[in-house]
Automatic annotation (TrEMBL):
It comes from Luteimonas padinae. Residues 265-473 form the Histidine kinase domain. It catalyses: ATP + protein L-histidine = ADP + protein N-phospho-L-histidine. Residues 206-257 form the HAMP domain. This is histidine kinase. SUPFAM superfamilies: ATPase domain of HSP90 chaperone/DNA topoisomerase II/histidine kinase (SSF55874), Homodimeric domain of signal transducing histidine kinase (SSF47384).
Amino acid sequence: MGQARKDRRLAWRPRSLQARQLLAASLGLLAFLAAAGYALDRAFVDVASELQRDRLRSYATSYARDIEFDRAGNLIPPYTQPDERFERPGSGLYALVVLPNGTWSSESTSGPQLPDAELLEGGVEKFEGPLPMTRADGAYGEVLRYGKGFIWDLEQRPEAEFPYTIYIMEDAGLLPQQVRVFRGALWGYLGIAGLVLLLLQALVLRWSLLPLRRVVAELNRVQRGQADRMSELHPRELEPLTESVNALIESERQNLEHQRNTMGDLAHSLKTPLAVLRTRLDGDASEAELRAEVADQVQRMNELVSYQLSRGASGGHQLFAAPIEIEPYAEAIVRGLEKIYAAKGVVCEFEIDPAARFHGEPGDLQELLGNLLENGFKWARSRVLLTVESGASAPRRRPGLLLAVDDDGPGIPPERIAHVLQRGVRGDERVQGHGIGLSIVQDIVRSYRGELDVSASPELGGARFLVRLPPGL
C-alpha cells in the first residue's frame, strides 16, 4: 500500500516551472500565430478581390477610351488590346460590348459560352460573380464580371446619343488559385517562424530560470554538507528566499551547537560532584558524614541540572513565529511577583506601546519578562517600570522591539556589569538566587540576534536592563 501511494504521488506530481512556462508560452505563441495567419489570410483575400475589381475596371476604362463608332453607330474595334489575353481564345479574360443594335466581343470569347449581358444606363457600374459559364471543351466554369454603362454622343448631336455597356469578365478560378499559393507560402513561413520562436523561447526560458536552478544546486550542496550556507549572488526577487534559507540554516546550526554545549557543560559540571562522592565512598568517612556529603552533592547536582535544563529550554525558537501581544504576559507575571514580594510593597508601572509585538516563542517572552521583572522586584525599593516600544524597521521585514525594565534599587556599578552577567554570579551573595536569570536572558536575546544593555536608570535611579531585538525576516 505504501509503494502504491508513493507511485500515485509520483504520477500526480506537479509539472516543473519550466514545463509550465514553456507550455503556457507555447500555447500563447500558437494562438498568436493562428490569429495572425487568419488575419493576414483575410486581408490578402480582401485585397486580392479589390485588386481584381480595380483591374477589371481599368480594362473597361481602356476599352472606353480606345473604341470608336462610325456615323451609323457601328463600333470600330481598337487596334490594340489592353492585355494580350483578350486576343487568345479561351484565355480566361474576356471583353464584351453591348450595343442597342447588337454586341461586340474580344477574340478570347471564341469558344466559351459566357453569361448573358444586359445594357446598363450611363454611369452605372456592376460587379458580379461568380457567374456560370461553359468552357470551349464543354466543362463547367465560373467568371467574375465587371460592367459599366456609357453614353456615346455622335457629332455633338443630342438626338444621336445612344448608350452602350462594356463588360470585362475573368475566370473566377484565378483568384482562388492565387489565394491557395499565398496560403501555402503564408502558413509555411509562419510554421518556420513558430518553430524558431519556440526554440528561442525555450532558450530564453532556460536562461531566465537559471537562477532557480542555481538555488536548487546550492541547496543540494548544503544538504550534502558541501557548503555551509547559500551564496548571496542571487536576483533580488530570490533574495528573501535565500535569506530565509540561510537564516534557517544558521538557526538550526546555532540550536545544535547550543544543545551540544549544554550537554557538554552539564557533563563537565557533574564531574566534580561525582568525583567527590566517589572519593568519600572509597574513604573511611562515617555513615553520618557520608549522608551529609551525599545530601550536599545531590543538592548541588540538582541545581546544576535545573540550571542546564533551563538554559536548554530557552535555547531555540521558531524562525517564523506569529506576533505576540506583550501586555497580557507582563500583567500575569507581575501579579505573581506582587504576591511573592508583597512584604516589600513594590509597585510596577507599564509604558507599553499598543502596536509593539514580540515575534517569537511565548516561552521566550515569558522567560525574558519573568527574569527581568523578577530581578527588578528583587532589587527595587518601591518601584519598577516596564517600557516596551517598537524598534527599528526595514523594508519587507518585521519591526524590531525595545524592552526595558527599570528599578529604584541600589543599581549596578559599571565595573561590575560584566561580572554580574556571568553565569552563576549573583549581584549580592546575601540575596537568595542561583545567579542564572540574567544568563538565561542573555541566551534568549542572543538567539534572537539582539543586544542586552545594563546601565543606570534615568527615571528611577536604580538599574536599567534594556533589550534591543533587531528587525526580523
